[in-house]
Structures are given as C-alpha cells and as structure tokens.
C-alpha cells in the first residue's frame, strides 16, 4: 500500500452541479487524462426535492452523510431509500433520477467511477463501527471525531474531522469511536487503465 496522502478542506474544490440546482464539494479524484475523471469522491448538500444531474458513462454510489435521509426514484421505478449506514446505493449515471427528502436537507456522499474503468463501493460508518476494505484507491473521510486507520502491515494513523486520507493499492481497517462518523470508499481499476 502506498503512503497515505492526507487532504484537508483547503484541498477540496466546490463546483456547481451539472443541472445548476446546487453545489458539490469534490474531496478527491483521479483524472482520466482527457479532462474527465476515472473516479471522483464528493459531498453535496441536497436542500430540496428534485432531479439529479445526469452522468452518462459513469457508475454512481450514494449514501447519506448527514440528515434524516432521502429516497431516489430511478428510471421511474419505485422509490428506494438511500442508506444512512453501511453500503451505499449504486445506480447508473445514465439513469433519470429524482430525489425526495425525508425530513429536510441532507449531505450526500457520492462515489463516481467511469464505466469500464473499474468499480467502486461506498460505506457510511456510524459511531462505534468498523469497515474493512481495499482497492487501487481507498478514501477515508472523517465527518465527526477521529477515525483510526490500520493498514495490513499493522501500521496506522488517525483522520481528524473534516480530513481525508487517500491511499493506494492495499487494504485497510477503519474504526470509529462512540462519537465518530465517517465515509469509506474503495475503487478497483481495470488493469488496462
């Protein structure tokens, strides 16, 4: 596993949604060399019901990071609750997606991966929880408190609230204490990329 790259709020970038209805904060990404991205991890404030932006050719995973929750209607199917804990909800960026907030605004975590470049997973870590994961890129973002990260070789470090650790090529175990919350994501790329 490569040494962790620690990112703070000064490393984040706020960008408008493609549909113009809000803003997202890009936490980390890997560029594809053509002006796009292989993968992107971001947080977005969702303040009202409405459509999601389309991302053709992108596979998405979403989880509720803060707030009471939301439901998505994907390509006209029955609404699906977006998880507040555990694995995120995966869907195609090509889909027509509508959002209904459960009880006010939420902050949503998004992991997007270029279709054909690899696959990704997103996990919302609640207080007193743990996550085991690995991949070509591993992202650990602390929402509150301090997350303890332990690498396969036994070494470790902490990620403080608002901070992010970006690691490559390996496996980690992340622990949250009784007052800690965070987001963990992993991307596995197809070797030809």
UniProtKB/TrEMBL annotation:
Pfam family of the protein (one): HutD
Domain of life: Bacteria
Official protein name in the record: HutD family protein
Organism per entry: Azospirillum oleiclasticum
């Amino acid at each position: 596993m490569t040494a962790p790259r620690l990112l703070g709020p000064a490393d984040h970038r706020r960008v408008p949604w493609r549909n113009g209805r809000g803003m997202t904060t890009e936490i980390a990404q890997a560029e594809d060399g053509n002006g796009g991205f292989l993968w992107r991890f971001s947080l977005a404030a969702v303040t009202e019901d409405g459509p999601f932006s389309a991302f053709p050719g992108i596979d998405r995973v979403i989880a509720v990071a803060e707030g009471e929750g939301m439901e998505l209607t994907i390509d006209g199917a029955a609404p699906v609750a977006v998880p507040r804990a555990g694995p995120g909800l995966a869907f195609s960026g090509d889909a027509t997606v509508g959002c209904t907030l459960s009880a006010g605004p939420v902050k949503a975590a998004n992991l997007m991966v270029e279709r054909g470049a690899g696959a990704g997973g997103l996990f919302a870590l609640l207080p007193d929880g743990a996550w085991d994961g690995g991949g070509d890129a591993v992202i650990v973002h602390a929402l509150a408190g301090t997350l303890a990260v332990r690498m396969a070789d036994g070494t470790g470090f902490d990620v403080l609230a608002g901070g992010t650790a970006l690691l490559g090529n390996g496996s980690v175990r992340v622990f949250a204490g009784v007052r800690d919350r965070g987001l963990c994501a992993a991307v596995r790329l197809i070797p030809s990329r």
